[in-house]
UniProtKB/TrEMBL annotation:
Alphabetical keyword list: Membrane, Transmembrane, Transmembrane helix
Species name: Paenibacillus xerothermodurans
PANTHER family the record matches: INTEGRAL MEMBRANE TRANSPORT PROTEIN, SLR0610 PROTEIN-RELATED
Top-rank taxon, per record: Bacteria
Descriptive protein name: ABC transporter permease
Transmembrane segments: 25-48, 144-173, 205-224, 230-251
Xref: Pfam families: ABC2_membrane_6
Length: 263
């Protein structure tokens, strides 16, 4: 409990620090939202022309897009600097975090806390529109809403585990920005679309080696289409828990091998 209170205190300090520059905070949030909106608008224009993509309607693809965006927003809100571990390794600033009276992971997660209102608003709006349409058409029932909320949390856990596992490689590689582009950014962008558009080898990659597809695609198969069976839901939750446990152990092993690169 003392560790949790300390983590909460560090988060509050990080928020106060960022809110010292309110204009920059809100402008950055607006700019991020505009960029994400433009991405989805381009997808929508294409789908409006062709009606569907590999049998997935525009609303189903919007569901995939909205869920993965919400998963990303939660992950980056709570653990943004996991994605930026390289700068701590290169500068040697990680040494300062090791001196804090909290676990290193908590200390790192409390750095540069981001609220990301643009991503939450946009992801929530897209999800609301798509789920509402599918409710009216009878494609899904009201149970889709709590199930979606549950799997957004599960998906955020999976994205966090992927990010943590990739960041841990930095204890040996140091420079990991290109690796993170593949395992986090590119993989997350890929699952904004139905996996049916990808070759089999890429689908296997996104469901096993970099299991980002378990964050939104697999739950969507059951929630939206009733495919694979209800066993998929507890199986996905169990997988997320085991995957996170494995990456936490990998992180602890990586920390034990850390050698300062600073002066």
């Amino acid at each position: 409990m003392n560790t949790v209170r300390m983590y909460s205190t560090l988060i509050q300090a990080s928020i106060r620090s960022r809110m010292q520059y309110k204009w920059n905070f809100w402008f950055s949030a607006l700019l991020a939202a505009i960029i994400n909106v433009m991405d989805f608008v381009l997808i929508t224009i294409v789908l409006w022309k062709f009606d569907s993509l590999k049998g997935w309607s525009i609303y189903e693809i919007g569901y995939l897009y909205g869920t993965i965006m919400m998963c990303k927003a939660i992950y980056r809100t709570l653990a943004n600097d996991i994605h930026h571990l390289e700068k701590y390794l290169v500068s040697g600033d990680l040494d300062q975090l090791l001196l804090r009276p909290v676990p290193l992971l908590f200390a790192l997660m409390s750095q540069n806390f981001r609220l990301m209102p643009g991503e939450y608003i946009q992801g929530g709006a897209v999800l609301t529109i798509c789920i509402n349409h599918m409710l009216q058409s009878g494609q899904v029932g009201w149970s889709a809403i709590p199930l979606t909320c549950m799997f957004i949390v599960t998906g955020a856990t999976i994205l966090f585990a992927i990010g943590l596992g990739t960041a841990t490689c930095g204890f040996w590689l140091t420079r990991i920005s290109e690796l993170q582009t593949v395992t986090e950014d590119a993989a997350r962008t890929a699952v904004q679309y139905p996996m049916e558009i990808y070759p089999m080898w890429m689908r296997s990659l996104l469901l096993t080696v970099i299991p980002v597809g378990a964050a939104n695609y697999l739950p969507a198969l059951y929630i939206l289409r009733g495919e694979l069976g209800a066993w998929l839901l507890p199986a996905t939750i169990l997988f997320a828990a085991l995957f996170l446990s494995a990456t936490l152990k990998f992180w602890q092993f990586g920390v034990s091998k850390y050698q300062s690169t600073g002066s």
